[in-house]
Structures are given as structure tokens and as C-alpha cells.
Design a protein that fits this description.
The chain has one helix at 138-150, and strands spanning 26-29, 32-36, 48-54, 63-65, 69-75, 77-82, 85-90, 94-97, 103-107, 114-120, 126-129, 135-137. It is mainly β. Strands 1-2-3-10-5-8 form a 6-stranded antiparallel beta sheet, with helices on one face. Strands 4-11-12 form a 3-stranded antiparallel beta sheet. A hairpin with a 2-residue loop joins β6 and β7.
Length: 151
């Protein structure tokens, strides 16, 4: 993939070291917090990454995206529901969810934390909640959290 100038699509992305312990996490509700990592704010033009931390028993609502998503469990055990089928996943297990496929993650433990690394195949990734049909840009959630932190 190239820009109209003929340069590779990653040419303007400056090298970065991102340390989750030093970055701001924002609440996703229900005991889940997200830390944006590779985003437009650091120059990403092709994909987005971040981590979501789940307290014991926490989970996120079923949703879909407008692009594929891959998730790797970094810590703990999770229950992931993909298109109505639930799977138990543990450290370093990885999922791939095609665009438009309903899915959700929940912490399998009532007491131990769980952490995932997510990668969206587009910087223009959106999330649509299955229950309400409300769609938001993933990076708009990050921008909103940053604004709330500054206020």
C-alpha cells in the first residue's frame, strides 16, 4: 500500500516506544479499562492497537466492527463469544474476528484480572453495539478519554 506520492504508507510513522504503565487508561464501563497504544496520535495510518484490562468478573457488551480484529490474551483467562459461540481462552491464545461479526470478551475469573491486546485492521475502526445499534469510532473514544483527563 502506497500514498499518492508513491511513498510506503508507513513512511510518516515515527518510531515510538509505548509503555502501558505510563499511559492513560479510560473506562469502558463494567470494570473494563482501555489503554490506547498505536493510534493516529502517534502517527498510525494503517492499524490501531491497545490493551483492555478487565477486573474480576468484568466484561464488555456484544459488538461488531467495520474491519477485522485480532485479540491476544496477555494475562488471565477469558470467555470470548464469537457469533454466538463461547470459547475459553487463556494467556497468549489469539482470536481473529472478521468485520461485522458479533463478539464480546469477559473475564473468566471472578477475582483475578485479565488483560487483552487488540489490533484493528484499520485506523478508521468503528464499534457498533449489538443491543442498541449505536456506532462510534474507536479512536473517538480515545480522544474523548484524553479530553476528560485534561478537564
Amino acid at each position: 500500500m502506497h500514498h499518492p506520492t508513491g511513498e510506503p504508507c508507513f513512511a510518516s510513522f515515527r518510531p515510538a516506544v509505548l509503555r502501558p504503565a505510563e499511559l492513560t487508561a479510560f473506562s469502558r464501563g463494567g470494570g473494563a479499562r482501555t489503554i490506547p497504544l498505536v493510534t493516529r496520535a502517534v502517527g498510525a495510518e494503517v492499524f490501531l492497537t491497545g490493551q483492555t484490562l478487565f477486573e474480576g468478573g468484568a466484561g464488555i457488551a456484544p459488538h461488531t466492527h467495520n474491519c477485522p480484529e485480532s485479540v491476544t490474551v496477555l494475562e488471565g483467562d477469558a470467555l470470548v463469544e464469537i457469533d454466538g459461540t463461547e470459547h475459553h481462552v487463556t494467556r497468549f491464545d489469539t482470536t481473529y474476528v472478521p468485520a461485522g461479526t458479533p463478539h464480546r470478551f469477559r473475564n473468566a475469573s471472578a477475582t483475578e484480572p485479565m488483560r487483552i491486546l487488540w489490533i484493528y485492521a484499520s485506523v478508521d475502526a468503528t464499534r457498533t453495539l449489538v443491543e442498541t445499534g449505536v456506532t462510534t469510532r474507536v479512536d473517538a473514544e480515545h480522544d474523548k478519554a484524553a479530553a476528560e483527563t485534561r478537564d
